[in-house]
Design a protein that fits this description.
The protein is mostly helical and 209 residues long. It has one domain: Alpha Horseshoe (Serine Threonine Protein Phosphatase 5, Tetratricopeptide repeat), CATH 1.25.40.340. It has nine helices and no strands. The radius of gyration is 16 Å and the shape is globular. 59% of the residues are buried. Bound molecules: adenosine-5'-diphosphate and magnesium ion (2 copies). The site of adenosine-5'-diphosphate has 24 residues, from helix 3, helix 5, helix 6 and helix 9. Its EC number is 2.7.1.121. It is an enzyme of class 2 (transferase). InterPro entries: DhaK_L_YcgS, DhaL_dom, DhaL_dom_sf, Dihydroxyacetone_Kinase. It comes from Georgenia alba.
Length: 209
């Protein structure tokens, strides 16, 4: 089994741009229900910028790609999600050493969620993107410990993120803009958890391609 290299990371970001763009209206609708309605716009702008930036570079490692993603998202996404995703990708880039095997994928996802929590101080159950990333990182670590190949590790992470995003629906938000709604935030999926699940699905698809 070969590790995931720069071409995987670039393919991930092309797929991320496509899936975010295709789900732009859905993410806007989710954020309109419990926030200010800009999450789809913010993410589409950010990943379009990432895709454009990567097209001008010839990155040699996943770490180089992830660092470019981090700086581009930080300067283009804005709102709460920009710094959170920026920190996630920056930490993942620092954790990514050369080509990624299964354990390397798990380490990068763990670093990403540590960054999100360091930045946003959200614990699981507060109806944020942490509710997608934390189960994803845990599932990735479990799969890697079982000796799974990187694509299978990412598939486990993506599936856990999808379940995690769905599980935010009944939650009452206690962090971020949705927390202003209190109990009225229940009954809607968190937009950042949903976009996180889309991004991790794109990562798995790129690894399976
Ligand atoms: P804004 O709320 O500033 O308009 P976005 O709409 O782009 O920003 O992003 C909102 C998403 O950010 C939420 O759905 C949630 O997943 C995430 N988020 C907000 N605050 C936090 C936090 N403290 N920790 C983790 N994620 C958060
Ligand atoms: Mg918003
Ligand atoms: Mg906003």
């Amino acid at each position: 089994t070969t590790g995931l290299g720069a071409s995987w990371a670039v393919d991930w970001m092309q797929r991320a741009q496509a899936v975010v763009s295709a789900n732009r209206v859905d993410l806007i609708d989710l954020d309109r229900a419990i926030g200010d309605g800009d999450h789809g716009e913010n993410m589409d702008r950010g990943f379009t910028a990432v895709s454009g930036k990567l097209a001008t570079l010839a990155p040699q490692t996943p770490a180089e790609v992830l660092k470019t993603v981090a700086t581009t998202l930080m300067s283009t996404v804005g709102g709460a999600a920009g710094p959170l995703y920026g920190t996630a990708f920056l930490r993942a880039s620092k954790a990514a050493d050369g080509e990624l095997d299964g354990a390397g994928v798990a380490a990068a996802l763990e670093a990403a969620v540590e960054g999100i929590q360091a930045r946003g101080k959200a614990e699981p159950g507060e109806k944020t993107m942490v509710d997608a990333w934390l189960p994803a990182a845990r599932a990735a670590r479990a799969a890697a410990s079982d000796g799974a190949a990187p694509a299978a590790v990412l598939r486990a992470a993506a599936d856990a993120a999808a379940s995690g995003a769905q599980a935010t629906e009944p939650m009452v938000a206690t962090k971020g803009r949705a927390s202003y709604l209190g109990q009225r935030s229940a009954g809607h999926r968190d937009p950042g958890a949903q976009s996180s699940a889309l991004l991790l699905a794109a990562a798995a698809e790129a690894a399976e391609a």
